[in-house]
Amino acid sequence: MTGKPVLSLDHATKRFGDTVAVEDVSLDLREGEFVALLGASGCGKSTTLRLLAGLDQVSAGRVLLRGADATRDTAAARNVALMFQSYALYPHLTVYQNIAMPLRLRRLSVLERLPGAAILRAPVGRKLDAIDAQVRRIAEMLRLDPLLARKPGQLSGGQQQRVALARALVRDPSAFLLDEPLSNLDTQLRADTRDEIRALHKTTGYPFLLVTHDQSDALSMADRVAVMIDGRIVQVGSPESVFKRPGSRAVAAFIGHNRMNMIPSGPAAAVHPMGARFDLGIRPEDLRITPDGALDAFVESAAYHGEESILSLRGPGDIVLRAVLRGAASVPDQGSRIHLSASPEAVHAFDIDGQRVEIA
Amino acid sequence: MLRRAVIDLVLVGPAALALVVFIFLPVAVVVVLSFTDYQFGATRFEWVGLGNYADLFGSRLGRNALINTLVYAAIVIPASVGLGLLVALGLHGIAHTVPRVSAVLRAVYFLPVAATLVAMAVAWQMLLHPSLGLVNQWLAGLGLPSRQWLSDRGLVLYTLAAIGVWQSVGYNMVLFLAGLAAIPPTLYDAAAVDGAEGGWSRFWVVTWPMLGPTTLFVMIVTAANAFRVFETVATMTQGGPAFASDTIVYALYREGFVYFKAGYASAITVVFFAALLLLTAIQIAVVERRVHYR
């Protein structure tokens, strides 16, 4: 899994006027790797992607392509494939022409792109044949063959997305960047597309960078997840490590379907001895109701969600807690008093600066 | 049911009646008159069949007006559309870096559109005056021979065409600016990633095709206005010298309202009407077929 870095940001900073969109970000995208850049909207992740692609220029720092400085290279020179959130298909061109466009722009001169150029000069014809073969191969791979003559406006959202994927992958890109590829799709299509993108990554072997605000996309698809908060990358690691060992209070609060409970030091000692000195975080899923639990709480309300029930609790010192009960566990009555505990490995400790402290 | 029908009729009726009385009926009368030798004020007329049309297309004067109009349009349409696009591209390009300058220039280019053309024509007449006009004085300053802009038979039509271009560039520019603003910026990003380096490729891959509907609309509007050229001719040259700047609408005015030859003027009107109808039909056909992306 540790191939050579293909595309890297080296202490990259991007300012727009006085606002800093991306601050001192270093990120490697290695050979054959699937990285997810995860962050809330407006955190600078799309800007990071544009810096990598060459659509925006860094204000400070460098962009490296296979170890060589590519900071001043254009998007075309970096040969990065990019799939846009809006797909950005050319509306006036057919699916076939859309997919062929990157090849035409790279292989044909302005004059050779004129209609009829192939009739006048044989080499142009050979180039066009090569382009044609490549377009048809990628179209077959993405099941687009029956749609080649259509215009993007005549396609469904999912079909448009496959065209955008085909256009990005038709040439041999150095890396493939995907900007929120799933956010315009409905739930069912989303799950299918996740699998499809995973499969594409396996078959093509290109380094993939997925930019997303959706943690389940990031955790389920990527080999490594980079968490971005306020223009900085605060943690990089495997999905498991980012989820199980969040490096800071901010990451802990961001990752997880249910926001992590934060118990201030003092009362937290009821859960774990280290709670005397550090704030403790416990995911709602990890709180268990046990008769001998040391953390007392009142049940304020209970919400039934099908597979799970979410309890809103009030603990010692009026701290707000939430607990998730899985499956058929009996839900305690509203207003009742319950006792909670958590296993030591489910407890995360954070120091006064919000940094993780290992307590195992 | 009856009540609804009555209400519908009351709502539609007046406008429909006005349309019939003020548009369809006059058109029908004009078509009928074009087959007669009717003169304004005359008490009777004779049927002359296609005689008026034969006069228009057969006589030297009629053909001259038609050809002059076509030459005028052949200059004004491409020049005005091309310059309008060029100016719009330029102003759109500098709108991010120097928005104030862009806004001021936009207003300057649009001024001729907003101004009354007849008043502007008088101004042009002064500028183009053979001895006192600024244009010739500048030419003299540059060491070039002065020209008789409005009284040289070989030059007058081109002078009027230049003024026609000057007058319509601003309008086309505004339409093109709106078209440019509607192009999604991500398409330019996509083109950059796909390998469109430099302005030329970007223009042909994104800008030009995305401006397709705008360009067609601009062309049709410019064409309709070019074929209708009248004010500058009427105020500056009266079709002269020696009919060198006689155009179809000016000929219509002259035959109809100076010589009162209503029959002949009606024939010119019908030809003019048919040409504009054809232009509109082409627009609709092409718009539906080629430029619609959805």
TrEMBL record, chain A:
MF (Gene Ontology): ABC-type transporter activity; ATP binding; ATP hydrolysis activity
Catalytic activity, EC: 3.6.3.19
Protein's UniProt keywords contain Glycoprotein: no
Listed InterPro entries: AAA+_ATPase, ABC_transporter-like_ATP-bd, ABC_transporter-like_CS, ABC_transpr_MalK/UgpC-like, Mo/tungstate-bd_C_term_dom, NA-bd_OB-fold, P-loop_NTPase, Transp-assoc_OB_typ2
Enzyme class: hydrolase
SUPFAM superfamilies in the record: MOP-like (SSF50331), P-loop containing nucleoside triphosphate hydrolases (SSF52540)
GO CC list: ATP-binding cassette (ABC) transporter complex, substrate-binding subunit-containing
Record-linked Pfam families: ABC_tran, TOBE_2
Keywords noted in UniProt: ATP-binding, Cell membrane, Hydrolase, Membrane, Nucleotide-binding, Translocase, Transport
Tree of life domain: Bacteria
Start and end residues of each ABC transporter domain: 7-255
UniProt keyword Phosphoprotein present: no
Record family assignment: Belongs to the ABC transporter superfamily.
Protein name: Maltose/maltodextrin import ATP-binding protein MalK
Record organism: Roseisalinus antarcticus
TrEMBL record, chain B:
BP term (GO), one: transmembrane transport
InterPro entries given in the database record: ABC_transporter_permease (IPR051393), MetI-like (IPR000515), MetI-like_sf (IPR035906)
Spans traversing the lipid bilayer: 9-35, 70-95, 107-127, 155-183, 203-227, 262-287
Keywords: Cell membrane, Membrane, Transmembrane, Transmembrane helix, Transport
Stretches assigned to the ABC transmembrane type-1 domain: 66-283
Localization (cell): Cell membrane
Keyword Thylakoid: no
CC annotations in GO: plasma membrane
Membrane topology field: Multi-pass membrane protein
The UniProt record lists the keyword Transmembrane: yes
Protein family membership: Belongs to the binding-protein-dependent transport system permease family.
Protein known as: sn-glycerol-3-phosphate transport system permease protein UgpA
Protein species of origin: Roseisalinus antarcticus
Organism classification: Bacteria, Pseudomonadati, Pseudomonadota, Alphaproteobacteria, Rhodobacterales
